[in-house]
Amino acid sequence: MENKLPKGWTFKKMLDVVDYEGGSQPPKKQFIYQPKDGYVRLLQIRDFGKNPFPTYVPDSKRLKKASEEDILIARYGGSTSEKDSLGRVCTGLSGAYNVALAKLIFSDKELDRKYIKYLFMGPWFRNVVSKNSRSCQKGFNRDELGDIIFPI
Predict the structure, then answer these.
(1) What angle do CA 102, 106, 107 make, to 5 degrees?
(2) What is the pTM of this model?
(3) Contact by Cβ (8 Å): 25, 57
(4) Which of 65, 87, 89, 117 is most enclosed, with most CB atoms within 10 A?
(5) Quick one: CA torsion of 111, 94, 39, 96, rounded to 10 degrees?
(6) What is the pLDDT of residues 68-97, one digit of tens each?
(7) Segments in 1-152 forming alpha helices (H)
(8) Could you tell me the CA-to-CA distances from 71 to 24, 27, 93, 135 in Å, in that order?
(9) Of 58, 14, 66, 51, which is closest to residue 36 (Cα–Cα)?
(10) Is the Cα dihedral 30, 52, 81, 92 positive or negative?
């Protein structure tokens, strides 16, 4: 079957147009559970679900941060359920994001933010990364994303 795209569209490798940056993981001994001056919210996958559990850590330039408009992708998930979090799109919160999340990086001049969000919400990305095997949980890394192609 031939792939037909509207005029002006093309297929491109994901990492040629959309990169990502993994989060940082402060020590758990620094976690507090109420807002406080000098602290920033630590975004975790659970914060984008039905039972968020806000956690705060000392603010630092070393932390990887996201705004409410940024698109974060759940980088890890369980290995037993198709409804796990791996590849889930997480948006709408700001703060420092932990290692289980990756921020998508792309040019707003070249790509529409809503298009990227809905593209990643579709099954194609989750289907590809869910095939990656890990000893305890599924996940993805840069090498495994190199051949993913999508329409631009």
Answers:
(1) 155
(2) 0.85
(3) no
(4) 87
(5) -50
(6) 999 999 988 654 444 558 888 999 999 999
(7) 14-17, 113-121, 123-129, 142-145
(8) 16, 24, 10, 27
(9) 58
(10) negative
